[in-house]
Amino acid sequence: MPAPAGTKRVRGVQIYRPFLYGTEAIPFDPANRPKDAPADHTHRWKVFVRGINNEDISYWLRKVQFKLHDTYANSVRMIESPPFEVEETGWGEFEIAIKFYFVPESTEKPQQIWHGLKLHPYQGDAEHLELQKKNRALISSLCYEEVLFNEPVEIFYDMLTGGAQVTKGRGKGSKGTPKAPPTAQIPDKSSAGNKYSKEEEGKELDRLGEAVKEVERLADEERAKLLVQERQHAELVKTEGGDLKSNKKK
Ligand code: SLL
Question: What is the pTM of this model?
Answer without folding.
Answer: 0.78
